[in-house]
Amino acid sequence: MSTTPLGEKVPIAVETARIDEKNEALDGYVLDPRHYHGDVSSLKTSPDGFILIPQPLDTDDDPLNWSSRRKWVIVAIIAYIAALADYTGGSAIITVIPQSFEWHLTQAAAQRAVVGNLFTIGACGLFVVALASYFGRLPVLFIFQSVMVGTCVWSAAATTFDSYLAARIINGFFCSVGQGGALMWVKDLFFFHEHPRVINYIEFSIILSPYLGPLITSFIVSGTTWRWAFWVCTILAGIAWFLVFCLDETLFDRNAPAIPRGTYFKRLLGIQQAKGWQHRSLVESLSRPLVTITKIPVLIILVYYFLNFAWVIGVNTTVAIWLTNIYGFSPRGLGYFYFFGVVGVLLGWLAGHYLHDAVGRYYLRRHAGRLDPEARLIIAYPATLILCLSLLVLGFALQHQWHYMVLAVFAAMQCFGIMIVTTAVNAYLLDCYPEGSGEVSAWISASRNWAGFMATYIQIEWVTRLGLAKVFGIQAGITFASVFLILLLQAYGKPMRKLQGRISFKSGQ
User: Fold this and answer.
1) For residue 509, what pLDDT is reported?
2) CB within 8 A of 437, min separation 6: which ones?
3) In terms of Cα–Cα distance, which of 140, 446, 430, 484 is closest to 290?
4) How much is the pLDDT for 1?
């Protein structure tokens, strides 16, 4: 990008109405038409004056042209389906205690099902986006959701721990179809300037769900068998299965010849999407997640998110054990305590609803109408410090048995911080690599769930060996150190992206 002698950026000259979104991702997005030279009358803008990126095609088949109501109905359904993965996983946290009695296992042994489920939830998204980029979003969602319903039934009806363990592992591999591919739907339906707000809604449901699961399940097991927790999961998954029929195919290749949409039944089963296979490669689709992870900014964000989310899940999956063993909480008491997650995530969503857009608008004013993806990460600094402080206080509170309301307040603060961070990292990677929306979404989901897998696997033994205050102090130190990864991206993220170039895919999804 050239500059004037005073160091001011020269506005981009627009010669045609076509805007190359991938180049915008490298150089920074220009949203204000006043900062373009030449005739901009042919460029389409939003009601509030932003240049629409990408520019929608003049056809109703383009999902960007669908009505706002239709888009938000799809977002609501995807958010609900995305929440079910961690809702069912969170429910299993509470059932560990009664299962350990029923199957004569230690709590650590019974928790292996939670750990196995977390690992496969993380892997699920990588397969979802690879298949959805070739076969279509809708048929992949339909098939994966169908299997999820079956594995929820299996989990509820299992008569041995080995059977239950297998059900939970397979369930994880199919239940994250909405979570792992969330950004794929966001990118298909919404313009660049709308992304943070839409992402904030979907991530609200995802981050809230692992707290809703234990909350509701605690009340269930206090009055009946743990199996009803999974019958409830089955009912919720069944509702999601029916809601799939209210969705539609959003896969739309802008670089390939237009293909008639056909009947809804053909789109649901992938028959209509098969007519576009000649313009897509199955090998490329399957390799897309691997290509994406080779980008250094993607890898840095995944490490940062891993180091922050791990301890959030570590608290969530073990707090029931500490409250039961240290404070003598009953199952019903645990249910009331888990309202901390609802409060924290709700406040984080509400703050993010305004802050993410406010930071973006402030950056635009300071940079001549240009928004670099790295601007999305500014808000991660205070959020990470909140996560660090929360861990420190939680460690001392548990070690010295402070009042349980101290635990509730700072556990809620931890949820608040991770909600802000989650929207920021999703928006950043989507802005950096719009051509790989599904892939970056899947890797973020994998980072989140594998962090939970790691933390859940080591947390109890680690605390037993070193003590609560030391372990949480170490985790707080790791969280604080992760801020330097954000500093690295803000200083060198743009040069790194330009050096490595865009994610090169044949199809123009």
Assistant:
1) 56
2) 183, 184, 186, 187, 188, 430
3) 446
4) 41
